[in-house]
Amino acid sequence: MRQVLDGALALIPGSDGAAIELHSGRNQLTYAATARELSVAVGVTVDMSGSLSGLAVTTGAVQHFVDAALDQRVGTVLGARLGISSMLSVSRSCRPVVASAS
Asked: Which of 20, 48, 56, 65 is a good FRET partner for 27, with 20 to 30 A between their CA atoms?
């Protein structure tokens, strides 16, 4: 898991942290491994229905937000407690993202 976190941080140079969440119950995800600013979150459990990561898992699509305070898909209390202001969430089952410039 450490290699995945290190790779994610290398791909997004401005990021302050990274996390791997694992399905841990009926409708829950648990922070299983973290890096940098999110290191305090190991073991934290969130409901899939109230998290961006849960949305990525249930839709199979990459999810992101740039301002946690303005995005209704985000658990704002947990986000504030962990210091999360923006986020990119990718499920292992997400479809590939194709980006192009015109």
From this structure: 65
Beta bridge partners, 46, equal 29
For residue 22, tell me if it sits in a domain.
yes
Which residues, including other chains, have CB under 8 Å from residue 79's CB and lie 6 or more apart? Answer: 68, 85, 87
Residue whose tokens read 């986020």 = 87
Q: Give the total number of structural domains in the chain.
A: 1
Dig out the tokens for 89 from the structure.
Answer: 């969430």
- Residues belonging to the chain: 102
Q: Scanning the structure block, which residue is given the tokens 């998290």? A: 51
Q: In the chain, which stretches have pLDDT less than 70?
A: 73-77, 93-102
Q: What is the pTM of this model?
A: 0.78
